[in-house]
Write a structure and sequence with these properties.
mainly alpha; globular; 450 residues
Length: 450
């Protein structure tokens, strides 16, 4: 923990010394590469959501864009951990960049709805960008296994920055600079090239070259299958005790081992992934569910009379909430070198409490000032970011090294599952519409003036 500069027990010299100690061993090239990976992999997702109104028009529910942007990512994260190890990282990077760019080009070049164009081609582009983002996230998280904790910290900070930079990019290019939607989206289609340069030109390749082949663990599985103890170890999941895990490394050197089939590998990973559900997947999914239900369905109804706010029109509320939220996410996702919080379910409960408080605010105005709501929205972003980075840090700490790459990728399904579930609840349950109707029925028609 860093001391507060200027306190009696500290000094600027001591503060600088401890700060240097926190970052001791950090490789600038590794941190730069993973920060860029996190930024570019997530920024297209943010740009697409920021452009939702321009993509589909005012008569189409924006949830369609959200679902097209998240469902493919969820599906690929659910399936890919069981086969992605067969694809080299260098090929994956080229594939991500190509598919992402192709998706953004489809979105940009399809005729706009104002010219009679349909949304089919644009949604196909959104799906491609989503697939690339999903498989990119689980791959880059798996890649952090080879580069240590600072790569995870840099990745988390980059993903947090994507929210601010993505929304700011679209707003500045289309509003401040005055570029057309088409030109702005076309320019963003070249951003995936940054990932390619980051991997091939910036990231040191030594740690990746030193690792064994992906078949190394398959040989271990074959040996265990032959001796009949694999099911017992799988039932205990990925978090077996160190003594049990040590036998694996001994067996891996046994010359009698034979190659296992892909079916055995799949069954093995499927059973082992069960050990990830309760400690990591569920709390992260819970936080994202509450977080995105707030963002999508509750925040648009958190309105006040204009004379009590710094705004001159009601449409300014939601973009301001989104910016404050993204600021909280960026700060907390950049905090991993300084703060470690192992209590994931506690933070999940706090996020659910935020959801409850903000729903009550929409129903009955329990907080008299919009600035209190600003603080709560910021806190929502902080909690979400903290749970995200600490979940993967805990996986790296708890899961044995030979299983860590798979575990990091498998847990990445959590956020997409939470976002998708919140979108379905928001749309099917009509949360925003219900809260707005409640307010209108009590003489507060502000949500109709957006």
């Amino acid at each position: 923990m860093l001391p507060l500069p200027g306190s009696p027990s500290s000094s600027w010299a001591m503060f600088r010394a401890r700060l240097n100690a926190v970052f001791a061993g950090a490789d600038v090239r590794v941190c730069t590469a993973f920060w860029l990976f996190g930024l570019i992999n997530n920024v297209l997702y943010v740009i697409i959501l920021s452009a939702a109104l321009d993509l589909v028009g005012p008569d189409v529910p924006k949830a369609i864009v959200l679902l097209a942007d998240i469902v493919p990512s969820f599906v690929i994260k659910l399936c890919a951990p069981y086969f992605i190890h067969l694809v080299p990282y260098s090929f994956r990077i080229l594939l991500f960049a190509a598919v992402s760019s192709w998706g953004m080009l489809l979105i940009a070049l399809a005729p706009p709805y104002t010219d009679g164009g349909t949304i089919t081609a644009k949604m196909a582009g959104v799906v491609l960008a989503s697939l690339s983002s999903g498989i990119g996230e689980l791959s880059f998280l798996g890649l952090t296994h080879y580069y240590g904790p600072f790569s995870q910290a840099a990745w988390g900070s980059g993903t947090g920055a994507a929210g601010l930079i993505g929304a700011g990019y679209y707003s500045v290019t289309t509003t401040s600079i005055g570029l057309s939607v088409k030109t702005s989206l076309l320019a963003s289609s070249f951003l995936p090239l940054v990932m390619v340069m980051g991997f091939f030109l910036v990231l040191p390749r030594g740690p990746l070259r030193k690792t064994g082949s992906p078949q190394h663990r398959d040989e271990n599985l074959a040996y265990e299958e032959e001796h009949g103890d694999i099911l017992d170890r799988e039932d205990r999941g990925l978090l077996a005790n160190p003594e049990e895990r040590s036998t694996t490394s001994v067996r891996s050197s046994n010359p009698t081992m034979k190659s296992t089939t892909w079916q055995t590998r799949f069954v093995h990973d499927l059973r082992r992934s069960r050990g990830l559900i309760y400690p990591y997947i569920l709390p992260l999914m819970l936080v994202y569910f509450a977080e995105y239900l707030i963002n999508q369905s509750v925040a648009p109804t958190l309105l006040f009379p204009l004379y009590k706010t710094p705004f001159t029109e009601y449409r300014s509320f939601y973009p301001t909430y989104a910016t404050i939220y993204q600021l909280g996410v960026f700060i907390s996702r950049s905090s991993l070198p300084f703060i470690r919080i192992p209590y994931l379910y506690t933070m999940g409960a706090l996020q659910c409490l935020n959801l409850l408080l903000l729903i009550l605010q929409a129903l009955n105005t329990i907080f008299p000032s919009i600035y209190i709501v600003f603080v709560l929205i910021f806190w929502v972003g902080v909690l979400g970011g903290l749970v995200y980075v600490n979940t993967y840090a805990n996986v790296s700490d708890d899961v044995p090294e030979e299983e860590r790459e798979f575990a990091l990728g498998a847990v990445s399904v959590s956020d997409s599952a939470g976002i998708m579930l919140s979108g379905l609840v928001g749309v099917v349950g009509g949360v925003e519409e219900g809260l707005c109707a409640w307010q209108v029925g009590r003489g507060k028609d502000w949500c109709r003036r957006l």
